[in-house]
Design brief:
single chain, 8 strands, alpha/beta
Length: 279
């Protein structure tokens, strides 16, 4: 993402606590508040607990297998949902290209980047109900923080930014919005999911153009905000841990560039964090 613009951040205290489980109100018995080792809590559907645990185990084993090959392990934070003019299909393709580019840059024999948009990360549909953002964020938070809440499975986190999206669309800095609008027209002819999203009113040519020209970045993703705060909390714990310290924080990159030292201690507005609310 060109001259690296950093997304706005606001102070947010994330206290480290032991994992707890708090039941929601009887009127909404399927929902529970679940908290993690770094003190981040989400409202989840209790029916997905086992599926979440299975995915956490699956990815920890996948990470261990790559670590055994001597690779540095990274995690990618990327906007995904069809919200604000963004489109799921495009975002998933951007994530795949970012993974390929980062691994090529660092060396595929030396680094492995976990892509959370990969299909093996999808939680199953249970009782005709799809997992919500709280369910997914609990899953990724547990994977990110690791068994000891020190992020011990990861060496770096890559936050996707506007340059990454610009590369996907082949933007040149001239008539970029027209190029994105033309891309939308072409894709609409062959992408049934995009057609359905347009018919539902989830996205339009104008909102698609504006999003990918002006807002395509983790700065506008609530899930990415949660992931930023998780890594901030992990690094705070690392700095206070004798086995890690400041020199061994999880490295953070935004839009292909390393962040400044001050940004390691900055928090951003939370997205999905919070206890279940009574009806």
């Amino acid at each position: 993402m060109r001259a690296c613009p950093w997304f706005p951040v606001a102070r947010l205290a994330v206290a480290a606590v032991l994992a707890v489980l708090v039941a929601a109100s009887p009127a909404d018995a399927a929902n529970v508040t679940e908290c993690t080792g770094v003190g981040v809590c989400y409202c989840i559907n209790a029916d997905f607990r086992d599926a979440i645990a299975d995915k956490v185990d699956y990815f920890r084993k996948a990470i261990a297998a790559e670590r055994a090959k001597g690779k540095a392990i990274g995690y990618m934070s990327v906007p995904l949902s069809t919200l604000g003019g963004g489109y799921f299909g495009v975002n998933r393709e951007v994530a795949a290209k970012v993974k390929e580019r980062v691994e090529t840059r660092l060396g595929p024999n030396a680094a492995w980047l976990l892509n959370p948009t990969a299909k093996d990360a999808d939680l199953p549909t249970l009782n005709n109900v799809r997992a919500g953002q709280g369910d997914y964020l609990l899953m990724w938070t547990r994977i990110l923080e690791g068994p000891k809440a020190l992020g011990e499975d990861f060496d770096f986190v890559y936050f996707v930014g506007p340059t990454d999206f610009a590369g996907y669309f082949g933007l040149t800095g001239k008539d970029d919005m027209d190029r994105i609008a033309a891309y939308f027209d072409d894709r609409l002819q062959n992408d049934a999911d995009l057609k359905r999203a347009v018919e539902r009113g989830s996205v339009s040519k104008a909102t698609f153009r504006n999003y990918y020209a002006l807002r395509a970045s983790v700065a506008f993703s609530v899930g990415a905000h949660d992931e930023w705060n998780v890594i901030r909390a992990v690094n705070a714990r690392r700095r206070d841990d004798k086995a890690f310290g400041t020199a061994n924080q999880v490295a953070v990159l935004f839009d292909g560039h390393a962040i400044s030292s001050a940004e390691y201690d900055q928090a951003t507005a939370g997205g999905n964090v919070g206890a279940c609310k009574p009806n």
